[in-house]
User: What shape does this take?
Amino acid sequence: MNTYYCTMLTLDTVYQASFALREVARETDLIRAPRMFPSQEVYLKTENLQTTGSFKVRGAYYKISRLTDEQKKKGVIACSAGNHAQGVALAASRQGIDAVICIPEGAPISKVEATRAYGANVELVKGVYDDAYNRALEIMKETGRTMIHPFNDPDVIAGQGTIGLEILQQLPDVDTIIVPVGGGGLIAGVAFTVKMLKPGVKIYGVQSSGAPSMVDSLHDHKVETLASVSTISDGIAVKCPGDLTYSLCEKYVDDVVTVSDDETAVAILDLMEKQKLVSEGAGAVSVAAALFNKVPITKGKTVCLVSGGNIDVTILSRVINRALIKEGRLADITVELIDKPGQLVEVSSIIAASGANVVGVHHDKTGNEKYLNNCTLRVSMETRDFEHINEIKRKLSEAGFQFVGEDK
Assistant: This one.
């Protein structure tokens, strides 16, 4: 089956997709990121600014545009953690086609509501993406609707491949492209297109370390299914890659690496602070891979594909706090005090004199088994970096204060 479908994926289909998408998708900007990467020439392909806030509309729209009149009359069915859902909903509504979307019930509310706003009927399914996919298959068999697969379809892959065309047009001498990977449709399309036109370009994929389905499959040379996935990057939390996307990745992708949720959180924060761009976790993993040296970017021109920006605002603050801790810009320290007046003032004065900002204090007077007149003070601070934190600890130690817990 892989060989058959791979023959259906040609450069002609990618160019046809590019033509078809002119009426719905925009050519997203490719912008230099010197503040994030002062020593390297790194660019961001801003698919987070695409229609519906994600690249997914490309593949969904092209696939639906290729349906027969009979298929369009019966409607379409899809499953998604959110972004593909919005792409299918918009594509279907633009062409007057009824759409049903199965979405995992844990998907961000913003993505669910956005899908409904584009005109699709939403069915929430318990579990993760794969559970939603199984439910979508049931609906397909019951109703005769056409399945719009989020990644394992040659037309969908061709639609995503149009991003590769745009990158080569915008930056003809690109050397490296870093792409987020979930089920593999995006990287399969980009890698196929770019390698066919410019074989010397390196293509690297990035997954979350909590959902390394493509990494494991490529390592073991066969499609594998993870028992579970756990990551803040819900858009790439896929247990099993497609057999078609796996075959294309094996042939055209140079390597696939992983990044942690902490590294992804730092990338999200850096994109906001330094580039004024909002990215969801799945969209930021490519940037995280570059920031934390998971792929070589020291030579030539590198493009990080920021695949989506639909992050739920309810988790954004948690992601930012996680990133601040990871960068040493938010820290907690706990010191032991003698329970007498003036101790809190002295600690606060040392911290303030060091240039840090106290944002929280917890005073525990329960003491300890050895010294009943002792208490502990936990201080939350805004700091510059880990060196700044160590400087504060050193000054507190010099003043005679002792640390407890992990700060010892």
Q: What stands out?
A: Residues 154-170 form the longest helix (17 residues). The chain has a mean pLDDT of 91. The radius of gyration is 25 Å. The longest strand covers residues 330-338.
